[in-house]
Amino acid sequence: MSTNATSTIAIAAPTDRAGVRRARLRTWCGVVATCLLLCSAAAFAGKTRVVAWGGEVGNRALDIPYSLDDAVAIAVPYVLRANGEVIEIGTMPPVVRARNARAIAAAGSCLLILHRNGAVAARGACHSPVPAGLSGVVAIAAGGHFGLALTSSGRVVAWGDNSSGQTDVPTGLRNVVAIAAGRNHALALRSNGQVVAWGGNIDGELDIPPGLANVVAIDVGNAYNLALKSDGTVVAWGDVFDNPRPVPLDLPPARALGAGEWRQAAVVLRDGTIREWGFQEGKSVPPGLRNVVRLSMGFAVNFALVDRPITPLEAIADMRVDLDALLAIEDADRNALNAYLDLAAWAVRANRAPLACTAMRSFAALAASPGVIPYPDRVLYLAAQTRDVLRLMGCGHWRGG
After folding, report:
1. pLDDT average, residue stretch 119-145
2. What is the spatial distance between Cα 25 and Cα 208, in angstroms, rounded to a whole number?
């Protein structure tokens, strides 16, 4: 959705040159003021957050910092920030894996980075190097042991394992606007809304449904595909009966796709909510999650890019969920920790900031006490998240933990 702002300024007819200058000055002041208002609104609207779900207790890919409010792209377990940094989720603070990036793609332990100059680089356990001299790239995709790049001319370049023909880009493939890669196959979306597939076909990955047209987006899991049509309809093919089962018949119109690597899929509906199906291991989609613009579905952990920053109340509620998942905590200590979080939440609602700050500091101090939380990495995580909550509430700097 785009918003257009129009400003009309009425100026009385000047009677002399000084009046003309004053009129011009008022006009420019009005224009500058309008620009400042629009820029401020754009800066506020640009705040984002990343929400993670799925996975077992202690999976570090779930540890999204509350201070991360400038994400522009996601590829589990990586996040691309607006300043071009690529960070890996799983440590506090997250590790920076690359800079000057404009897009990312990931598969397993392999990270592909599209730099702002159109060059592509690989990080991690990538089985094949990026072709030398590859440039002018506008999009990338990471498959099982291979990679794809889409150039500004609409052509596809593939490299890596070709045991199933996954790097044999069809001759004459042109006018491509999107690419996606699976375990042993690849998809391309052409500008006319048609989908082209190549590579392995053990599970029907290449069996494009007859008559599929007007496609505006594609995504690929290990051995199955999702296509989004212009009317919001979602079509699936490949190994959809086991990984992750067919598209629900009552699925409302969607606007974004998320094909998981293992037995689950999801879409962003047009109202900004998520609808997921298939088997999901671990934490479920947070209830009430809205304003979602993009999905990245991993093997067990999934990311959603949300067009709204996290609030202190949401952060405190998330900490409560994380704390409840830690089983080896004595009842007395758990009750005390939860009481501090409950007090902080109540104080936020009551607009009693000093009390909320004190409650969160008390929570962190107790959590860091020896023997209270018998998970050293979780203690560090909760300390880092507490610092972020204090920042969100305007409590000032805290050096605890």
Report:
1. 95
2. 62
136-159: burial string, b at 16+ Cβ within 10 Å, e else: ebbbbbbbbbbbbbbbeeeebbbb
- pLDDT reading at 30 higher than 90: no
Beta-bridge mates of residue 123: 111
Give the integer Cα–Cα distance in Å for 340 and 334: 10
298 within 8 A of 76, measured Cβ to Cβ:
yes
Cα gap 233→148, rounded to integer Å: 26
The per-residue pLDDT for range 61-100, each reduced to its tens digit, is: 999 999 999 999 999 999 999 999 999 999 888 999 999 9
Geometric angle at alpha carbon 53, from 48 and 56, rounded to 5°: 145
Banded model confidence at residue 286, pLDDT cuts 50, 70, 90:
confident
Q: Is the pLDDT confidence value at 249 over 90?
A: yes
Q: Copy the structure tokens of residue 215.
A: 């496609």
Task: Say how far apart CA 320 and CA 324 lie, in whole Å.
Answer: 6
Give the C-alpha separation, 199 to 166, whole Å.
Answer: 4
The answer to whether 111 and 87 have CB atoms below 8 angstroms apart is no
Give the DSSP per-residue string, 2-64: ----------PPPSSHHHHHHHHHHHHHHHHHHHHHHHHHHHHHT--EEEEEEB-TT-GGG--
Q: Between 109 and 21, where is the model more confident?
A: 109
- DSSP H/E element including 268: strand 264-269
- What is the pLDDT of the chain when averaged over all its residues? 88
HSE-CB at 251 with a 13 A cutoff on CA atoms is 25
Q: From the CB of residue 362, how many other CB atoms can be counted at a distance below 10 Å?
A: 16
309 phi, psi to nearest 5 deg: -70, 160
14 preceded by a cis bond (ω within 30 of 0): no
pLDDT tens per residue, range 349-397: 999 999 999 999 999 999 999 999 999 999 999 999 999 999 999 997 5
**Phi, psi of 122, deg, nearest 5:** -120, 140
Is residue 88 within 8 A of residue 69, CB to CB? The reply is no
CB 292 within 8 A of CB 274: yes
CB contact at 8 A, 359 and 345: no
The region of weakest confidence among 116-120, 260-264, 371-375 is 260-264
